[in-house]
Hints:
With about 550 residues, this protein is of the alpha/beta class. It binds glutamine.
Amino acid sequence: MSSSKYIFVTGGVTSSLGKGIISASLAKLLQARGYSVTIQKFDPYINVDPGTLNPYEHGECYVTDDGAETDLDLGHYERFLNVPTSQDNNVTTGRIYFKVISEERQGKFLGKTVQVVPHITDEIKKNFKALGQTGKFDIIITEIGGCVGDIEALPFIEAVRQFKWEMGDRNVIVIHLTLVPYLKSAGELKTKPTQHSVRNLSESGIQPDILVCRTEFHLSQDIRKKIALFSNLQQNCVIESIDAETIYDVPLLMKKEKLDIRVLQKLNLEEKQEPNLDTWKEFLGKLKNPTSEINIALIGKYVELKDAYKSIAEAFIHAGAVNECKVNIEWIQSEKLLENVYETIANYDGILVAPGFGERGFEGKINAVKIAREHKIPFFGICLGMQCAVVEFARNVLFLPEAASTEMNPSTPDPVIDMMEEQKKITQKGGTMRLGAFPCQIDENSKSAKAYQSTLISERHRHRYEFNSNYKEKYTQAGMIPVGINPETGLVEIVEIQEHPWFVGVQFHPELKSTVLNPHPLFVGFVRAALEFSKLKN
Ligand code: GLN
């Protein structure tokens, strides 16, 4: 029997209150006190994982080392905790049902009627415990996606109720995140939505142990008292979560509100040491006091929804802070880059072509690469962005005008980007791409090796297409060098143009491994190159 303690984080009133950030911030504080903590997310939708979801609907799909396609909140968990997550850290309704239904087909229920309670709830509880049973963690924080009261979330909430009952109040607590809106016309903060939300949770048989209230203005003692009274809570368990300048302020704000101390008291755990947040504060100091500024053009297809490139945006925040440089990102729709391309992007200090799928916007991305290459503007291509760089080089330098990726043009005479052999027989979607961490050997004379200060790295992947190795010679001779190779399969993972201040294309997703404590070396290098380029211009 594991002795891990469990914290559940539920949400009420509305979605998007920031359960992920609150969970990550609490985890950070507990970690900084000396506890080993992990965070898992349970999502109530029926997709087996978010891998098949359109980024417009759900934001970026985050990939773990072990190749799970997960919710973007796992990115926050890793960025805050600096500890990798895994397949077990994200579970959906679809995955739970899939398991139970497969077992039913295997005859495991011995003729019983299979029901939401107890079979689905039992499977949910089993998954609540999976990470605890590894023995690696003192505390498991579980974020329940969606809002209390949603039809979809009911089995999860019921499972939390049962779990708390079975494990005991000293081992399991529930933190409920709600909203205390400010009504401009009344000039007041309103507690009613919070009261309703707590009542809703209570009707499901769960008494929250702590309330975290999102608010635009400070909560007075009177308001806290009122909320506490309606919620059966001590006043010091009503925690204010005021809007912050950056998400990275939230751990410090939660520390001020003593969220970590309340949690430890409720779970009967010692406070251990004062949280050591020195490096975190140093990062915040640099982030908030930049000495320079650069403008980066981010060329992508899903630019209307910034969450679609969440990890890239965060990686720039980390890399900017290291360089004490404010990084402004201009999100540019690739479809628009069919004319006036030079005028639109040549003034930026750096150009990043984003990952993506499908034909839409592909030619615009190629046009962006051409400007970056010809005008020696620092360039960073990620996954599809790297593939665009390879196609552009073929068309404009190797004199292969019809070169393409077979994803966009299956009958191209020059498939410089082609589907990987092992992908050709796959018909199922979801979990079937080349996923997760793979090693990469880097040329020691490359810009990448200098940035990483290493020649052997491991990075995460999510793609079906690859650089076609039949063209390696041609590229190398013409100056685009495959400097990063998978030592096991020979797949090309990084290309660089040596005669360029910073032209780096990577088949993997470096953004997924950038954290506050370990800003990603390639982002740091790209920001530095953009900074130098901007100084040269002025
Ligand atoms: N669509 C490309 C592939 O599957 C790139 C994927 C990506 O950018 N993540 O290879």
